[in-house]
């Protein structure tokens, strides 16, 4: 369920300013709802990963990486924000309510980002797998018939170039920096690989989006490309993970994982103190 | 109407000139016009709308820019709106030659020109991690961190004068 509780005033004036303008009546109601569902899955992926990675601010292995990883996290939260604003316009809700006002059970992020930050190798491997998936997903969305989304995606993709460049370099570094680093990277990949395709989880009303040209085809049709690209790169590094991605199913559903319950508590903490505060 | 068209031209020019006095909140030596973040300016009777193109989607300075634009243009029309827009994509190639000079003068290397799209990532041009040192002009520099103190800045080191410096990112 997306939307704001009845009668709640908007708490931040800046939200209205930032909503990219479009006419919601261009789409019929069921398509609008399906689009909101698509956007919330992507926004939640970005938002949740952004918060996990922001946990490294101040404690990354070196100062430069502290700055870099924090920037990556800030980028993702910025992407989530613009998508939440778009959803708010589609559904008549409020972006802050969607971002911070939902119960933990209502978040729809994929399983790949439902792991805690763990150690540095784990966070690097997870972000690399995610950025690769995100770049493939964005590449498909750039051709969306829903112009406001295609426009934002065109901008986001330029930022993703830096993400991928940075994470490719870190993967090479982990693979070539001695036994401990390789063992940790391998363990992380073995844990994460099963969830690698989950950013492409099929949505219940995807057919409506495909019919409207908002999506070109089923999301899970992108998973093979991701798996192949990841496999090629990992083979080059001699870091092939065990097993195989277990399919694309697995967006968050109740029960909420222990790690996400903890993260949700962290990122909603300030707002829950005073829901009407403006800052 | 011819007369309206003629009188509209100086008004738009005056608006652009006023916008040129609004500076980037994070790098105050460059105007938002030279930075290329002013997309379109729409003038209608009693109303002005300005599209602001963010350098980064998550740019925290964009609210300040919109507010500064609305303040600056208040005298031109009863209704002034500055809105974020992605209808045009801001790229670092939008920075004007004068803007690039102002960046250099305040110790920032301007971004490198964008190249052709990259086949692998299918995202953007290949990133050439090159920058000319804004202090000594040397091209003998290395990228130290693609992520600098703000989203739009990268950190380099100059081998010639041994100075670290920042570049406005190529994006």
Please provide a written account of the structure.
The complex is a heterodimer of chains A (279) and B (171). Chain A is 60% helix and 0% strand. Chain A is mainly alpha-helical and 279 residues long. Chain A starts with 12 loop residues before the first helix and ends in a 6-residue tail after the last helix. The termini of chain B are far apart. In chain B, strand 2, helix 2 and strand 3 (79-84) form a beta-alpha-beta unit. The radius of gyration of chain B is 18 Å and the shape is elongated. Chain B has helices at 2-19, 62-73, 97-105; strands at 38-44, 47-52, 79-84, 108-109, 141-145, 153-158, 164-168. Chain B contains 3 helices and 7 strands, in the order αββαβαββββ. Mean pLDDT of chain B is 88; it is low at 119-126. At the A-B interface, helix 1, helix 3, helix 5 and helix 6 of A face helix 2 and strand 3 of B.
Offer a quick outline of the entry.
With 279 residues, chain A is mainly α. In chain A, 60% of the residues lie in helices and 0% in strands.
> SSE string of chain A, helix = H, strand = E?
HHHHHHHHHH
Main pleated sheet of chain A: none
What is the number of E strands of chain A? 0
How much of the sequence lies in strands of chain B comes to 15-25%
Return residue spans of chain B where pLDDT drops below 50 for at least 5 consecutive residues. Answer: 119-126
| Mean of all residue-level pLDDT scores of chain B | 88
Gyration radius of chain B, in Å: 18 Å
Query: What does the overall shape of chain A look like?
Result: globular
By secondary-structure content and strand pairing, the structural class of chain B works out as alpha/beta
SS-based class of chain A = mainly alpha
Helix count from the secondary structure assignment of chain A: 10
Could you tell me the strand content of chain A as a percent range?
A: under 5%
Mean pLDDT across every amino acid position of chain A: 89
Distance between the termini of chain A: 26 Å
Radius of gyration of chain A: 19 Å
Strand runs of chain B, count: 7
